[in-house]
Amino acid sequence: MHTIVGGEFGLGTSALINITISLISIAFCWWVISNMRLDRIISKVESPHIKLFTIILSVVLGHGLATFLIDYLSWSRMIKYLF
User: Fold this and answer.
1) Across residues 59-79, what is the average pLDDT?
2) What are phi and psi of 2, to 5 degrees?
3) Which of 12, 34, 62, 64 gives a 20 to 30 Å CA spacing to 26?
4) pLDDT tens digits, residue range 35-57?
């Protein structure tokens, strides 16, 4: 059985958690954007350019959300060194 003390297993686990958080954040942002009523703002919602724009916007917003969540997780792990 492996223990998460550090080393390669700890780095691999951390990378897997970060990838998972990133993908979930991007999917969440895609879900939020796809449920918005864009037809009120944009006339041609079904245009390929608009679909590409929503994908890029989902990735950008998802990356920002994932970065915040990963940083928050890292900071919360460091609180134990305060005491």
Assistant:
1) 94
2) -90, 145
3) 12
4) 887 777 777 777 888 889 889 99
Q: Which two tokens stand for residue 22?
A: 């990133």
Q: How confident is the model at residue 3 (pLDDT cuts 50, 70, 90)?
A: very low
What's the pTM? Answer: 0.78
HEC string of the chain equals: CCCCCCHHHHHHHHHHHHHHHHHHHHHHHHHHHHCCCHHHCCCCCCCHHHHHHHHHHHHHHHHHHHHHHHHHHHHHHHHHHHC
- Amino acid identity of residue 52, one-letter, is L
Apex CA 59: angle with CA 72 and CA 68, to 5°? 10
Q: Which among 11, 14, 27, 16 is positioned nearest to 63, based on CA atoms?
A: 27
